Amino acid sequence: MANSTAAAADPLPHHPNFHPSFSPPSSPSQSSSSTPSSAAELITVLNPATADPLATISATPATTIAALVAHANEQFRQGAWARADASERFRVLARAGVLIRERMAELVDLEVKQTGRPVREMTAQLGRVGEWFDYFASLARTHQDDSTPFKGPVLNVLKCQPLGVCALITPWNHPVLIASKKLAAALAAGNVVILKPSELAPLSVLKLGEILREAGLPDGTLSIVNGYGRETGKFLCEAKGLAKIDLTGGLATYEAVAPTAARNLTGLTAELGGKAPVCIFQSVGAEKGVRAALFASFIAAGQTCVTGSRLLVHERIYDEFKEVLVRRVAALRVGHPRDEHTQVGALINDAAVQRCSSFIRKAEEEGDVILCGGKPTSVDGRGYFFEPTVVETQRKSFLSCHEVFGPVIALIRCKDEDDIVRTANDSAFALGASVWTDDFAQAHRVADKIDAGVVWVNGHHLNDPSSPWGGWKESGMGKENGVEAFESYTKVKSVVFNYGIEPSWFDEVGAGTRYG
Ligand code: NAD
């Protein structure tokens, strides 16, 4: 377990929940105050690279969540943000983008410590997070109401209004990026937000709350609550008065959340897991194909939803590809995340290491070949690490069909283009996929045929606030990013102005009298 209950005398820094205008109801478990009232309310956040405790957070109880959701609805009704002029929303969110850039070092430091991801990766990722606030600030400012070609002397205006109180539930792997993707869209559209980051990596997200407050977001518009998913996350998703839940996480979490959302008629966006195929055709050659595969597969030690976890390689280059791949993977530098030279950092916790090991055992049972890696490891004798691993397998194997969320990658020989496409689509997941080819026509053909919400051609992991992001099938529903995400945080009101039809239905009988 990465998290455990801390001792009362724990000297660790405590990171309180963020809800500036809300005082939790007093009760024996008043866990949302700055100073928790009992050790039982504390969750310890660990540094996965060392297994050392980093900080404590408060586990937010059901009574506090219920009161907070009611408070958030009152804030929405009062309208300090929901009815703020678009130019004001632009000003605040654009300012948040500036402040995020100014606080980069602080955010990177927290992300590296709590996720175990290498400093090089987090610096690159967080270097772009301000763009999400820039982009959605601009959408807020430039979004125009539409009108329809309504028949007759009628003007039908479609007004996009904010939904209300939205619950954002985020995972630990890209804490600030994923929180920002959801927050920037939800706030740009004028909603009040309650965000629950992962209990494994909440510290940088709490910092983001302070940054938004400093940028001028009215108090009461954003709250950030901590706690375990099975408790605080569940209490939040089950609370009455939510207009939308936007979840990024695993399928099991979606399955826990969806029934209540359905019962309460709460809108649900779900960004779930993946088993991204990396389709490598002969025209790119083995050397470049391997560079593509390394990038697709081992960023974040394979702990991203779009990890290139199935390498589908055309048989004409397969043998050479395999030989180069194994050599390069074995040479990847696993190390301490703070070290600038580290290429592969830690896994999030011991459970993640155990999960990788169990995939290896299953692969061996099924007769797959472990080409390199395959074992837990450590850095300076500490932390949760796993060797970068390549397993030669086939498309129906357990490894090919299930998300590892770690650096254990399936390598599959494919005989031709049709075989690559069929194998790519032979999955319950359909989130990301990449196609590597120098053949222009093939690039179009294969991109069209692949089942995935995001298909990259000669790229992987490419992401932009303007580019819709989200999966199909068991990878989820709805989109982050782009106009789609902004609009998913609004509801359309159809306002019909009549400037010429008299209410004469019951006055006269005759052709041309119109009621609808
Ligand atoms: P997780 O599902 O365990 O947790 C995600 C969040 O949900 C956490 O905040 C957790 O506390 C909360 N949660 C857990 N159970 C809950 C419940 N019953 N009710 C309400 N909230 C609950 O996922 P994780 O381990 O944090 O992240 C890994 C998963 O997320 C992987 O499957 C990965 O593919 C997926 N993911 C998807 C995307 C995407 O864009 N599609 C991005 C990142 C991660």
Descriptive tags:
single chain; 516 residues; alpha/beta; Aldehyde Dehydrogenase, Chain A, domain 1; Aldehyde Dehydrogenase, Chain A, domain 2; seven-stranded mixed beta sheet; six-stranded mixed beta sheet; 23 strands; globular; disordered N terminus; binds nicotinamide-adenine-dinucleotide
Q: If you had to describe this structure to a student in words, what would you say it looks like?
A:
This protein has 516 residues and is an alpha/beta fold. The protein has two domains: 42-272 and 480-494, Aldehyde Dehydrogenase, Chain A, domain 1 (3-Layer(aba) Sandwich), CATH 3.40.605; 277-452, Aldehyde Dehydrogenase, Chain A, domain 2 (3-Layer(aba) Sandwich), CATH 3.40.309. The protein is 38% helix and 21% strand. It contains 16 helices and 23 strands. The chain has helices at 62-78, 86-102, 104-115, 119-126, 129-142, 175-188, 203-215, 229-238, 251-263, 285-298, 315-330, 350-365, 398-401, 417-425, 440-449, 482-488, and strands at 14-15, 42-47, 52-58, 146-148, 154-162, 165-169, 192-196, 222-224, 244-248, 267-271, 276-280, 308-314, 369-372, 376-379, 382-386, 389-392, 408-414, 429-430, 432-436, 454-457, 472-473, 476-477, 490-498. The strands form six sheets. Strands 13-16-17-12-11-19-20 form a seven-stranded mixed β-sheet, sandwiched between helices. α2 (86-102) runs antiparallel to α5 (129-142) and α3 packs across α4 (119-126). The radius of gyration is 25 Å and the shape is globular. The model is unreliable at 1-8 and 28-34 (pLDDT under 50). Pfam families: Aldedh. Pathway: Aromatic compound metabolism; naphthalene degradation. This is aldehyde dehydrogenase (NAD(+)). Its EC number is 1.2.1.3.
